Automatic annotation (TrEMBL):
The keyword Metal-binding applies. Signal peptide: none annotated. This is 2-hydroxyacyl-CoA dehydratase family protein. It comes from the Bacteria. InterPro entries: FldB/FldC_alpha/beta (IPR010327). Keywords: Iron, Iron-sulfur, Metal-binding. It comes from Fusicatenibacter faecihominis. The keyword Ribonucleoprotein does not apply. It holds the Pfam family HGD-D. Belongs to the FldB/FldC dehydratase alpha/beta subunit family. The lineage of its organism: Bacteria, Bacillati, Bacillota, Clostridia, Lachnospirales. Its cofactor is [4Fe-4S] cluster. GO terms for molecular function: hydro-lyase activity; iron-sulfur cluster binding.
């Protein structure tokens, strides 16, 4: 940790005068990680997750090395289309998390606030804005985002468009599904294809889009099968790995590399032992750096993180005969679109499907959608007799999280879970 902190301090000290050098330092750090994980994977990390680790690191590295082939997105953007143009997607949240991994998030957040970005804005946005403003994040080819759930996304990308001339394309996604809504989104997707064709000088290959969607369907089938097996198997993981899953379930879904990862995941679990612990379904972001949470959940069977619901926000098959309609439906019917009741219903289903014994919801500081609905979710879980804990903090700005408070609440909750078991 000290080494990372020192490296982070070096990046922070280098940024004001030489932002490109600071970027180079980040790239060097990432390359070193790719190499280290390739040669000497973490002890106890399952083989499939070693592959996931590489996928995540390489995605971030590519955004920093090849900005001309990179699109800034949120996790709901139609990345399948972008892949067909040889473009890679990096979400603002993922890039921000990696900065936090280098312990430089405070610098970029302060940088954003110093130019007038509201202190109350979610730290993922501030971190990203600060990184771009400081010149450490290179300008992408364009940004593609959706109007769903997050009240910050559209404004962040528009701000970056005005200040740094990174063109932004916003998909307006209606709250409710209807045929009209589907057609409305399909028209916007066609418009996006036009923009992509113009920016890249390439034409969309409909067969490639078809193959991408087929690989996505197969990836999801394998993931569902893995989760089913996981109800009786213990496949070690960490909070960071659950976050890295977003690179597979969202940002690179449909790619060959991603499909290979899911094939490995689904097969590898067979060689792991039976599961005897308590299964936890995690809702929303994970403060991967919190010492207490790491101690209780990273590579632990007693209280086992079965899944994070963000990775399971849309698990339906895509209709490959009508790819644009399928992508429109994927966004319209996403658990994160529309009324909060949709999320409650899906979380309740996941508790059943995954045989989870408890739910933990993390309220990320500055995120209005998560704080606004969490009590409704808690009420539903109470009715269903599912123990649920709400934790507050910041998933990446270490200054906003208090380990002592989290420790007290978490330990009281786990004790309760243990008592429930004794009663049974
Ligand atoms: S945590 Fe909430 S506010 Fe922040 S990026 Fe995610 S949805 Fe938006």
């Amino acid at each position: 940790m000290d080494v990372i902190k020192k490296y982070g301090d070096f990046i922070k000290n280098t940024t004001p005068e030489r932002p490109e050098r600071a970027r180079k330092l980040i790239r060097l750090g990432l390359k070193e990680e790719v190499l280290r994980h390739g040669l000497l994977p973490d002890k106890g990390m399952p083989k499939a997750y070693t592959r996931l680790n590489q996928l995540a690191l390489k995605s971030v590295l590519s955004a920093l090395e090849h900005p001309e082939k990179t699109v800034w997105t949120n996790i709901f953007a139609p990345v399948e289309l972008l892949q067909c143009f040889g473009l890679s997607s990096i979400s603002m949240e993922c890039l921000s998390s990696f900065f936090s991994g280098f312990t430089v998030e405070d610098y970029f957040i302060d940088q954003a606030e110093s130019v007038g970005i509201a202190a109350t804005l979610c730290s993922y946005h501030k971190n990203f804005i600060g990184g771009v403003d400081a010149g450490v994040v290179p300008k992408a080819l364009l940004s593609v985002t959706t109007s769903m759930i997050c009240d910050g996304n559209v404004n962040t990308f528009r701000y970056l468009e005005e200040k740094h001339q990174v063109p932004s394309f916003v998909l307006d996604i209606p709250d409710e599904y209807s045929e009209d809504a589907e057609n409305y989104v399909v028209e916007q997707l066609k418009e996006l294809i036009g923009v992509l064709e113009e920016r890249t000088g390439r034409k969309l290959d409909p067969e490639e889009l078809n193959r991408t969607l087929e690989r996505e369907n197969e990836s999801k089938r394998l993931y569902r099968s893995f989760l089913k097996k996981q109800s009786r198997k213990y496949y070690p993981n960490t909070m960071t790995l659950h976050l890295y899953m977003l690179f597979a379930t969202h940002l690179n879904i449909g790619s060959e590399e991603c499909l290979e990862f899911f094939q490995k995941l689904e097969k590898d679990i067979d060689s792991y032992p039976d599961f005897h612990g308590k299964g936890v379904l995690w809702v929303h972001l994970m403060p991967y750096y919190q010492e207490t949470l790491k101690g209780y959940f990273n590579y632990q069977e007693k209280y086992y993180l079965k899944a994070c619901e963000m990775n399971l926000d849309y698990m339906e098959d895509l209709d490959t005969a009508h790819p644009l309609n399928a992508l429109a439906r994927k966004m319209l019917n996403n658990l994160y679109n529309g009324p909060y009741e949709r999320k409650i219903k899906r979380v309740a289903e996941l508790v059943e499907e995954l045989h989870a014994d408890a739910v933990i919801h993390f309220c990320h500081w500055g995120c209005k959608q998560s704080a606004g609905g969490v009590m409704l979710l808690k009420e539903e879980m109470r009715k269903r007799g599912v123990p649920m804990l709400i934790l507050d903090g910041d998933a990446m700005d270490r200054r906003n999280s208090h380990d002592g408070q989290i420790k007290t609440r978490l330990e009281a909750f786990l004790e309760l879970l243990d008592q429930e078991e004794e009663k049974e």
